[in-house]
Amino acid sequence: MNLSYWEYNTWLSNVDFTIIGSGIVGLSCALYLSHKHPKAKILILEKGNLPQGASTKNAGFACFGSISEVLSDLKQHSEEEVIQLVQKRWEGIQLLRKTLGDKAIDFQQHGGYEVFLQEQGALYENCLQQIDEVNTLLTPVFRQEVFKECPNSFGFNGVANHYISHVLEGQLHPGKMMQTLIEKVQQSGVLILNSSTVTEYVDHGDQVVVQTDQFEFKTNKLLVATNGFASQFLEEDIQPARAQVLITSPIAGLHLKGAFHLDEGYYYFRNIGNQVLFGGGRNLDFKAEETMVFGQTSLVQNRLETLLSEVILPNTPFQIDRRWSGIMGVGAQKKPIIKQLSNNVGCGVRLGGMGIAIGSLVGKELADIF
């Protein structure tokens, strides 16, 4: 611990709140804590140079759940629980937009579309038959019928002749979102230390001792917001889930516009200007993707490229510009874990791949614990 008096005194002494993780949950939590406790010293510890996990590595979907996902959830949850899940996503997106502004996050509401492969005819017919029922169920959330059948206007190949759209879904720029959030947090006086990996913490009752790979310090309260990496610190129902993503180089005359869900949401794609972002494939090998290690596998990447060439961009030459992956946090239940673990420690984790939609709200609720 080669810290000078000045360094320790400025950043690590008399800390009121420490947050592990500078993703959307951690930053949102810090922002609301600064409003709630304006005189408090708030510190965020981030292990990466940029926010790690999924906040800057996701697809930027402002989504609430495709119709097949809602119907699948109804098999595992009560109707009231499903309504609450969708309600949180809706409220979370509105909170995010209100806090940061649509222009700052490049929010665009082109709608969302669920695309069904031809071999998924039974799934498509089942979803189609239950549109009215699902719309009625979710009317208390959206105040309108959001799921509608629409023709295959984007020219996808090997799919059903119609999609089922969600008229209120949108898309945004995760990098701009996080940059704006970081700026707001720092303007509120919150301190952020990057490249600081927390290895353990001990709650002594009056204070929490936090150990990192570089230094040790004390804090009055500790909040864990590491989502997919939370199992390192918590004994909760949460495990990491890697999501692999790629993006094409610019494609002249690209007509694709919107946020698209494919194969019950295990694949997703969208336009970014005249480029196509495409991700997913975790269902090809769930066990291999239950990892905290970033990277790609040939199994998933080959499948993404095959679907791109055969289904999404048939007869359209393309090149891959970039590949990456993010780490989500999932569990048996889709409801996020927001709880007080002791008098001095709380957590807001397990966002279930819905970080954009619910991250702001989870951060706010985490801040409300203390």
SS class: alpha/beta
Query: Mind summarizing the main beta sheet?
Result: 8 strands, mixed
| Percent range of helical residues | 25-40%
What is the succession of H and E elements?
HEHEEHHHEHHEEEHEEEEEEEEHHEEEH
Number of helical segments? 11
Number of separate strands = 18
The termini sit apart by 30 Å
Mean pLDDT: 96
Q: Specify the overall morphology.
A: globular
What value does the Rg take, in angstroms?
A: 21 Å
Low-confidence stretches: none
What percent strand?
25-35%
Question: How would you describe what is shown here?
Answer:
The model has no long low-confidence stretch (mean pLDDT 96). The chain starts with a helix and ends with a helix. β14 and β15 form a beta hairpin. The chain has eleven helices and 18 strands. It is of the alpha/beta class.
